[in-house]
């Protein structure tokens, strides 16, 4: 076969199932699950460890013996899988809803015109079906975890979906998205601790209270505000022309970048407080320094490089940040050696 025939030969078709998974995974940006999932799993591990310590200190509070795995941050396969299902379903529902309500703006924006709904690759009915089914899957899975998750599940689902509408009426849309993402670590904590109301709402010791996941959740809010402002820089002109609101359109790129920088400084401070509350030491500090470097590099890219580099700052660096955070928290929990280092 000649070189011309090789070039013009029909490309082998992607296998049907793999092709569908690729399309739907791209539609909901499944790879971006790396942002919230590590924080949720880290919070789950901390809650499991503190759950073990709580029952060790209060042996009469529960007649059922705890599995030894609790001591090492694993709540058991059933609860672990339910938390994963909740995370995936909630994010899929929110992302599908976002793509649906933004489809007309996406069609007008050159950067997003090739997304699945504007391009006709996925039908509106299919998108709504995925949104409804994944939302129902989240609520069912939350109901199987404990009463607290069952009651709070609809509230969480409202927040993570409502974000998609906020850019139409407020400049602080980044805060709404931050709250939606922060629900992941707080929800994972409640999934482990919410079976016992006294344990869930205990005040002391601080490491076993609801304070650490709340501090982590607030730090996630400020982390999200920072990198979402940077991401919104790409659509500054389009958003301004079409009446879509954000801190970038309200304050201008220069001031918005300063707000992003301050948000990330607050996030770093809150992460230190989180580590102190849980008495983390060397591994956590090393991870914190890596996160500091990643954030500094992200802001250098936002200021010194072209807009084409923003996807690097948005996805790769922030995926590293959340992954490093999970790794160092897991290290502190799985290897007691680190807790003994003074």
Topology:
Blueprint: H1 3-8, H2 16-27, H3 33-57, H4 77-101, H5 103-108, H6 124-145, H7 147-166, H8 173-193, H9 197-200, H10 211-232, H11 236-242, H12 247-251, H13 253-277, H14 282-304, H15 310-334, H16 337-340
In short:
It contains 16 helices and no strands. By secondary structure, the chain is an all-alpha fold.
Notes on the structure:
This protein has helices at residues 3-8, 16-27, 33-57, 77-101, 103-108, 124-145, 147-166, 173-193, 197-200, 211-232, 236-242, 247-251, 253-277, 282-304, 310-334, 337-340. The protein is mainly α. It has a single domain (32-53, 65-340), classed as UbiA prenyltransferase (Tetracycline Repressor, domain 2, Orthogonal Bundle). Helix 4 runs parallel beside helix 7 (147-166) and helix 6 (124-145) packs antiparallel against helix 7. The protein starts with a helix and ends with a helix.
* CATH fold group: Tetracycline Repressor, domain 2
**What does the overall shape look like?**
globular
Instruction: Give the class from helix and strand content and strand pairing.
Output: mainly alpha
Alpha plus pi helix count:
16
Strand fraction equals under 5%
Low-confidence stretches: 1-10
Give the end-to-end Cα distance, rounded to a whole number of Å.
70 Å
Q: What are its keywords?
A:
16 helices; Tetracycline Repressor, domain 2; globular; single chain; mainly alpha; disordered N terminus; 342 residues
């Amino acid at each position: 076969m000649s070189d011309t025939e090789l070039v013009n030969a029909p490309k082998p078709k992607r296998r049907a199932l793999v092709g569908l998974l690729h399309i739907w995974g791209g539609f909901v940006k499944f790879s971006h699950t790396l942002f919230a999932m590590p924080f949720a799993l880290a919070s789950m591990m901390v809650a499991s460890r503190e759950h073990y310590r709580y029952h060790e200190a209060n042996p009469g509070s529960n007649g059922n013996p705890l599995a030894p795995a609790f001591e090492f941050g694993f709540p058991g396969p059933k609860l672990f899988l339910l938390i994963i299902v909740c995370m995936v379903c909630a994010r899929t529902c929110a992302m599908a809803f976002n793509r649906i309500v933004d489809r007309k703006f996406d069609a007008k924006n050159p950067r997003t015109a090739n997304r699945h709904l504007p391009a006709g690759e996925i039908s509106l009915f299919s998108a709504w079906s995925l949104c409804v089914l994944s939302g129902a899957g989240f609520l069912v899975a939350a109901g199987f975890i404990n009463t607290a998750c069952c009651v709070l599940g609809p509230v969480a689902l409202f927040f993570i979906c409502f974000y998609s509408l906020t850019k139409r009426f407020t400049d602080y849309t980044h805060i709404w998205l931050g709250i939606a993402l922060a629900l992941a670590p707080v929800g994972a904590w409640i999934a482990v601790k919410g079976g016992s109301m006294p344990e869930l709402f205990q005040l002391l010791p601080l490491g076993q209270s609801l304070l650490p996941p709340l501090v982590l959740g607030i730090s996630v809010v400020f982390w999200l505000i920072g990198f979402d402002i940077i991401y919104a820089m790409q659509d500054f002109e389009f958003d301004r022309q079409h009446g879509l609101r954000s801190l970038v359109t309200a304050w201008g790129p220069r001031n918005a970048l300063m707000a992003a920088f301050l948000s990330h400084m607050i996030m770093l401070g809150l992460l230190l407080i989180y580590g102190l509350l849980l008495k983390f030491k060397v591994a956590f500090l090393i991870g914190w320094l890596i996160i500091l470097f990643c954030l500094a590099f992200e802001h250098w890219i936002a200021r010194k490089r072209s807009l084409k580099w923003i996807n690097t700052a948005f996805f790769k660096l922030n995926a590293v940040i959340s992954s490093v955070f999970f790794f160092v928290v897991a290290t502190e929990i799985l290897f007691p050696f680190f807790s003994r280092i003074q």
